[in-house]
Amino acid sequence: MADDNESPRGELTTRTLAMPSDTNPSGDIFGGWVMSQMDIAGGLAANQTSHGRVVTVAVDAMHFIRPVKVGDVLCVYTEVVKVGRTSMKVQVEAWALRALSQVREKVIQAEFTYVAVDANGKPRPVAG
Fold it and tell me: CA nearest 26: which of 68, 65, 64?
């Protein structure tokens, strides 16, 4: 759980407005939509690190902390925490900038693993 003094970990990578079309039957933003936004941001960070195409191979420790509401701005922060020969682990945090109060709250955190691939989809060394 995020405490009131916690700050985002990593670099702001994407910002997206949560829209009514992204809701689940309860009226909250669908968790899968948030996860896809996190994967996009994590992929951008991995792409920059590997200097090329990457694919998502795992998502670990996905923690849904608070719901995202319509009108919130979803801010996704990323930090590459480990680089192997062909893979990278990226810590990804989603924070909601609440529409009505402008309060920022951590809503989801996870660790994504990406593999650098060549034009044929085969693993390749991470450039760097």
Answer: 68
Query: Do residues 70 and 19 make contact, with C-beta atoms less than 8 angstroms apart?
Result: yes
What is the tens place of the pLDDT at every residue in 50-105?
999 999 999 998 999 999 999 999 999 999 999 999 999 999 999 999 988 889 99
Of 3, 1, 66, 76, the C-alpha closest to 35 is 76
Of the candidates 114, 116, 100, 94, the residue with the CA atom closest to the CA atom of residue 33: 94
Give the three-state DSSP class for 29.
strand
Whether the model clears a pTM of 0.85, i.e. scores above it, the answer is: yes
Residue 104, φ and ψ in degrees, nearest 5: -105, 125
- The helix, strand and coil proportions of the chain, stated in percent and rounded to the nearest 5, come to 20, 45, 40
